[in-house]
Amino acid sequence: MVRKERLLGLIRRLIKINSQNPPGNEREIALFVKARLEEIGMKARVYEFKKRRSNVVAVWAGKHKKHSLLITPHLDTVPAGKNWKYGPFSGTLCKDKIYGLGATDCKGNLASLLEALRSLAEKKVVLPYTLIFAATADEESGSEQGLIPLLAKGILAPSAAVVLDASDFDIIVTQKGLMHLKVKVQGKRAHGAYPYRGKNAIDMSLRVLDEVKRYRFDYHRSPLLKFPTVNIGTIRGGDKVNIVADWCEFELDYRFLPQMSAQRILRDLKAILHRHVRKFRVEIEGIQKPYCIDTRHPLVASLTAAMKKCRVRAHIRGSEGATVITFFQDKGIPAVATGFGAEACAHIADEYARLSWLCKGAEVLEEFLTHYTP
């Protein structure tokens, strides 16, 4: 049985452990989680691909080894920043809200999962599949020290996966892809009093960016996602006010829909650059593919049924941002994301989660894990 007071104590303990990323140090929270898993009889192991960047993996053996389900929250948080009324590591409870860094993203989800597993262990439930638990490092900075190497090295190789990193009992079945680019434009330096003697890289970049903002994407609408977007994230250029700038660089953040091509977007960007610039370089800083799973998949159906049984309304949605569900598709692993945090509370000062939602989330997970059928 899910116990509210036990869950409250657990989320407070998790919030009090500093796992900000950057700088990135998940060892303390990983060892805390490992100890909680071992208390209920799960064999847990810590994996590190960089010193103190710790991941916890545990297995609950079920009836059938052939089928396995991974359930995975993350351990790290973004930096706390300033302007907190309640301390970021306080775990203050005010009415139904538990305040603290990571309360929604993603320590509340982690606490709900740990409580659900404890409840299942107390009931001595035998699962019809093998359950794999993985609390990962480095989610907030790209997962290069967490989920990515765990999948690449075959440490995690489940039949299906549920990512616990969402809010409001959403079930995320699709998300946009992303492409981060840095564009370096080269001009010709000259004295600021004679700008016609040079080639101003800032001027050229502004013409490029004007066309980039007017670019019309070729796409089919998605019922769960908004239109594709591009954001100009940074721009730098020139050395001094009285010098014609011979360099300028800017960064672009593209978000695109399933069935769209990142290479097509990149090709069109280069065509725009060629129209305005002679010398330039485009550096790809990161690409994540868009993702989509059939809403009739057993993962979606089982989560929806569990929420209905627990008297929670499930919301089938898409994600405008990038979650780690995209990393599973190259391995052919179906995945969805869900979670129980408070909407729009991730990454803000005075981040909070509702304790009643975390308790209900633990009940949903207990129901889902008990009755999930691959």
Output the CATH topology of the largest domain.
Answer: Aminopeptidase
Helix content: 25-40%
Contiguous low-pLDDT stretches (5 residues minimum) are none
Taken from the alpha-carbon principal axes, the silhouette is: elongated
Q: Could you say which structural class the secondary elements and strand pairing correspond to? A: alpha+beta
Q: What is the averaged pLDDT score?
A: 96
Distance between the termini: 24 Å
What amount of the residues lies in strands? 25-35%
Q: How is this structure best described in words?
A:
This protein starts with a helix and ends with a helix. It is an alpha+beta fold and 374 residues long. The mean pLDDT is 96. The protein folds into 2 domains: 4-175 and 291-371, Zn peptidases (Aminopeptidase, 3-Layer(aba) Sandwich); 177-288, Alpha-Beta Plaits. The protein has 8 helices and 18 strands. Helix content is 29%, strand content 26%. The strands form 4 sheets. Strands 1, 2, 3, 6, 7, 8, 15, 16 and 17 form a 9-stranded mixed sheet that branches. The protein has a 4-stranded antiparallel sheet with strand order 11-13-9-14, covered by helices on one side. Strands 4-5-18 form a 3-stranded antiparallel sheet.
